[in-house]
Amino acid sequence: MNRSRMIRTGIGLGAAALLFAARPAVAAEQGPAEAATAKLEQSQRELAQLRKEIMDQKIPLSRELSGLEENLRAVRAEYEDVRRTLDTRNLDLNNLREELKARRDEKNYLANLLGEYARNYETQLHIAELQRYEDVLEDARLAPENSNLSPGEQFADQLELVTSSVARLESMLGGTRYPGTAAGDGGLVVEGTFAQVGPAAYFSADESDLAGLAEQRLGSMQPTVLGFEDPAMVEMARTLVESGNGHMPFDPTQGNAHKIEQTRQTVWEHIRKGGVVMFPILGLAAAALLVALVKWVQLARVPVPDDRKIEPLLRALGRRDVAQAKGQLAKIRGPVSEMLAAGVDHLNESKELIEEVMFEKVLQARLKLHRALPFIAVTAACAPLLGLLGTVTGIINTFKLITVFGSGDVKMLSGGISEALITTEFGLIIAIPSLLLHAFLARKAKGIVDRMEKVAVSALNQISRRNTDASAHAEGGAS
């Protein structure tokens, strides 16, 4: 439409230009009126000619314009189609990008999930099965990091582990047998056959009599065969592995009972783990025990007279009858007899002298009875200190090993601390009985001394009463 307007405007401007161009020529030849009339006629003829030309050109131009407009509509329709197609493709492209991102996230999730499954699956395997599934585990573990493999091949390696795990579950329903290697008690690795039923795996060597329960030993990637104490159970395990049928020596604790059995040790082995400090601790214990036994026998053999034997002697002392007092002393033995004999020997002396003489015998008996008892008390006090010394030195050695080898082996750390605490254990084991023995022996010795002091006080009272009666009688006679 705009193009047709431009064509029409161009035709009109051309006609006007022709009219204005023709006017000066006519005006020059004729007069003003004739010239104007001629000019007008000429202009009309030219105008008619131009109109005819315009009419002649209008129809083709209109047809051309209509064709162009039709082409324009077709082009616009094609443009709209292309634009709709482009928009659709952009939308599809965005959807594909979102889907691709979702698939990538799903791929990463599945890769992480399969990697986690591989790690957990390896921890759930028995030590004997690691040899059987070693290749599959290695491929599944290294597949995500292998750039030479396509994503499909990586997933194939990881899915192979899932497939083998399902096959393992199916084979474990009734038990399974497979070849492998295991280490015996001496550490020698031999070839043989495993028979696994649930969590329990049994091994029988091909070229030796080694047979038993296969378990993992800390720090070793080889299964270790734990033998049975009963030969019949060893034969049962060998028959089960070799034939696949028979009785199974089942351990309901899944090997824990066998491990606990291995931790048991003799008293001498337990003592040796305490180290050098155990020697002075045991030496003190032996010496304290020997002293306690000697003192026990010594105190048990000390005679302590009862009141029935003491009363006649006290009455003789009250009468100042030396002969009768010595006769009664012959019936009494022990430190009480020695103390009273010293008093009888000085019976005619003053009360103060008799008291001093008897107190001297009490002191001598007390020193003799308490002799060596302080050693038992020292043992009770020193044994825990020696045990603490051994513990400190043992822990220092343990930390030295940790400095060299690191703290990755918890068994080494706990074992070192356990051995270090053995000295403290024995220190307390020796200190507590020593303390009780010292208290018992000291109490028994004190009882003997107290008995002597009581008898001495009673004798002095009798002597004092006799002196008082004699003084009162002398004063009465003088008056």
Automatic annotation (TrEMBL):
Cited InterPro entries: ExbB/TolQ_transport, MotA/TolQ/ExbB-rel, MotA_ExbB_proton_chnl
TM regions (residue ranges): 274-294, 372-396, 416-442
Signal peptide: 1-27
Domain MotA/TolQ/ExbB proton channel: 334-453
UniProt membrane topology term: Multi-pass membrane protein
Subcellular location: Cell membrane; Membrane
Pfam assignment, any one: MotA_ExbB
Tagged with keyword Membrane: yes
Coiled coil stretches, renumbered: 33-106
Any single GO CC term annotated in Swiss-Prot or TrEMBL for this entry: plasma membrane
Biological processes, Gene Ontology terms: protein import
Keywords: Cell membrane, Coiled coil, Membrane, Protein transport, Signal, Transmembrane, Transmembrane helix, Transport
Family: Belongs to the exbB/tolQ family.
Protein's name according to its UniProt entry: Biopolymer transport protein ExbB
Gene source species: Kiritimatiella glycovorans
